[in-house]
Amino acid sequence: MLDKKLLEILACPVCKGELLYDRGAGELVCGIDKLAYPVREGVPVMLTAEARAITSDELESLR
Ligand SMILES: [Zn+2]
Asked: What's the pTM value of the predicted model, to 2 decimals?
């Protein structure tokens, strides 16, 4: 479970935009860049090298 306040201050390192939290996958998702950043043991890993690309369908399912 990710702290809500933490989520509010986190931004995408690429576009500085807001992130969506995918509870099921445990990832933070940028809808602009279509990147999902992992959360490991409650710690968001905000590195593009660690992020995975997501499809438009995956993104739609989060909205
Ligand atoms: Zn972004």
From this structure: 0.89
CA dist 5 and 11 (Å) reads 12
Centre of ligand 1 from the C-alpha of residue 35, in Å: 7
* Ligand 1 centroid from CA 41, angstroms: 22
Q: What is the tens place of the pLDDT at every residue in 48-58?
A: 999 999 999 99
- From 2.60.40.10, 1.10.357.10, 2.20.25.10, 3.40.50.1000, which CATH number describes the 4-62 domain? 2.20.25.10
CA of 13 to the centre of ligand 1 (A): 6
